[in-house]
Structures are given as C-alpha cells and as structure tokens.
Specification:
This protein is mostly helical. It has 13 helices and two strands. β1 and β2 form a beta hairpin. Bound molecules: 3-hydroxybutanoyl-coenzyme A.
Length: 312
C-alpha cells in the first residue's frame, strides 16, 4: 500500500465521499466493516427468534399480522446487510460459519427471553427504538453499500418502533394486570436496550477508528444519550416508570442524567452466559442445516435459468 493510496482514501473520507467496493481501501478499514456489518446482519436474523416466539400466541389476528410482518422485515434487513458485507470480499458461507463458531457476535439484547406479550411491545418500542437511533446515524456511514442498506432499513424500522409503542401504550392504559405486565417488561428490557449502544466511548475498542473513517458518525455514548432523552419522554406519556433511581433531567445540559450500566452483565451475556445464548445459536444452526436443500434447489434453479434452460 502506497501512502498516495492512503492519502487519497482518507481525503475522500474527509470530504464525506462514499467508499465503494471497487475503491482501494486499507485492509483495516475492510476488516472493521466486515466485523461490524456481519454482526449487524447476524443481529437482525437472530433477533427474529425472541419475537417469533409470540407469533402463535398474539392476542388478536391484527397483532399476529403486524408481528409476522415485522419479523419478516428483520429477515430482509439481515439479507440487505449480508449482501452489503459480501461486497467486501467475504462469502455468505464464511459469515454464517463465523456466527456458528462464535467467532462473530450478535447484539446481546437477543439473548434475553420474551416472557409475556408486553415483551413484544418493549422490544418494538425500545430495541427497535435503539436500533433506529443507531441506524439513522449509520445512514451517513462512509461505506456506500452499508449506507444504502441503512437508508432502506430505516424506512421500515419506524413502523417497528410504532407497533411496539402501540402495544405498550394499550397495555399501560389497560387493566391493572396489563399495566403490571407493561411495567414488568420495561423493567427487564430498559438496561439491556442501553447496552445495545456498546461500551462507553473511552472503553470502546473500535470507536476511534470508526469515527476517523466515518464508519460511525456519532459515538456510542452520544447515541445512547439521544435514545434515553427520547425514551424517557415516551415512557412518561404512557404512565410507565423508567427503572433507574438515578434518572434526572439536567436543565443546563438539556439531557437526562442516568445511572451506570451493569457492565459485568453486558460482558457476561456477550461471552455466552446469557439466558438464551445457547438456544438462539442452536435454533440458527438447526434451521441452517435443515434449510440446506432449499439453498441447493434455489442455486440449481438459478444456474439452469442463467444457462438458458427454460422449465416453463
Ligand atoms: N452486543 C454484543 N456485542 C457488543 C455490543 C452488544 N450490544 N456492543 C458492543 N459489542 C461488542 C463489539 O462488537 C466489540 O466486539 P468485537 O471487537 O468482538 O466486534 C466490543 O463489544 C467493543 O465494542 P465497540 O463499541 O468498540 O464496538 P463497535 O465500534 O463495533 O460498536 C456497535 C458496537 C455500536 C454495536 C456497532 O458495532 C454498531 O453500531 N453496529 C451496527 C448496529 C448493530 O449491530 N445493531 C445491533 C442490533 S440490530 C437490531 O436491533 C435490529 C432491529 O431491527 C431489532
């Protein structure tokens, strides 16, 4: 790699230009993107499991239809992101193998169980709400295919957040039992949602490079603060209480101050000791193995069609 290439590359980044698959890029930029985009894609697909758990038990046909649509969207988001990742020179098989062997992570939020219907509301409201904050920022990421995938995904994500907040709003204004379920779900999902934004900036292994290469446009803590400020107001609106005794509005900074995240729990769950880690990965490897014939048939059909053999 010549310094000219590196200078040209950083010059494009500094000017806010997109880096495209055929452009020269430093190996470290490429591996950073493969790591982040692949984990993002894995998160979308694994994230289908906790919600899929309630499709057969949705309380109404409308609720079932909305949830099916949402879970289906997540699969599509995973595909956009796997496709964006493949433009960096890694195969889908390698990406899936990294997930199955534990070499690649996925967002630890999906290792928590969905115990009641209110959890589906809390996931849409908080988990998709956190994802929106993060993904809206990522629309400005320097890598072209990732940025374009984010723009598409963000269009659907706001529906996800709305349907979750609607569930929470209905339950928070429902019977005493429903109110209790909604508050219980908020109590269990609040802190893991804050963990979605990653470690504090000073403890983040990747944020300085990510900001220098404009892969990230805001830092973990900046995005987490945005999410807290937005979500506290939404909780107040429907009469739910954020489970944080240290939460308070700072009139000077115009932001909410909040308590410290349990980083031991964060790393414990990431390192495989969460409630559902094993179940999530076993489900994915089983489905992948059982789906082998579908992939083979689709590839065989595509090959025949590309070789001009018409079956009709
Ligand atoms: N869960 C699991 N691992 C996490 C994590 C989390 N919540 N937060 C951070 N980590 C990991 C990082 O992957 C990194 O480990 P690695 O070096 O093995 O990859 C380590 O902790 C240090 O964290 P950093 O902050 O230094 O890492 P990043 O710069 O990559 O920042 C991130 C972490 C903010 C998650 C960033 O990767 C990112 O913005 N990713 C894209 C968004 C994403 O992946 N969201 C996941 C949820 S998708 C979703 O919710 C879908 C919705 O539709 C439901």
């Amino acid at each position: 790699m010549s310094t000219t290439q590196e200078t040209t590359f950083q010059g494009k980044i500094d000017k806010g230009l997109k880096i495209e698959p055929r452009d020269w890029m430093p190996d470290k930029y490429r591996t950073h993107l493969i790591r982040q985009i692949s984990q993002h894609a894995h998160s979308e697909v694994i994230g289908m499991q906790p919600e899929g758990n309630w499709i057969t038990r949705a309380p109404s046909l409308r609720a079932k239809m909305v949830l099916i649509a949402k879970v289906q969207d997540e699969a599509g988001h995973g595909l956009y992101l796997y496709s964006a990742c493949e433009t960096l020179g890694i195969t889908r098989d390698e990406l899936i193998s990294q997930l199955h062997t534990g070499k690649a992570k996925y967002s630890n939020i999906f290792n928590y169980p969905t115990l009641t219907w209110a959890d589906i509301g809390a996931i849409g409201w908080l988990v998709d709400g956190a994802a929106i904050v993060n993904q809206q920022s990522l629309r400005g990421t320097s890598y072209g295919p990732y940025s374009r995938a984010m723009i598409r995904i963000c269009k659907e994500e706001s529906f996800h957040q709305r349907q979750g907040y609607e569930i929470m709003s209905k339950m928070a204004n429902g019977t005493p039992e429903q109110q209790e379920m909604a508050q219980d779900a908020l109590d269990r999902w609040w802190w893991p949602s804050l963990m979605m934004f990653g470690p504090h900036d000073l403890d983040s292994a990747h944020t300085s490079n990510a900001m220098n290469w404009k892969i990230k446009r805001e830092t973990n803590d900046e995005l987490r603060q945005l999410f807290v400020d937005r979500s506290v107001k939404q909780a107040d609106l429907i009469g739910l209480k954020i489970p944080d005794p240290d939460l308070k509005w700072n009139q000077e900074t115009r932001h909410y101050e909040f308590g410290e995240i349990d980083w031991d729990e964060f790393w414990k769950v990431i390192n495989g000791d969460g409630f559902c880690n094993k179940e999530r990965l076993n489900n994915h490897t089983t489905a992948h193995t059982k789906g082998q014939w579908v992939r083979e048939a689709a590839l065989a059909y595509a090959e025949k069609r590309n070789n001009g053999v018409n079956h009709e």
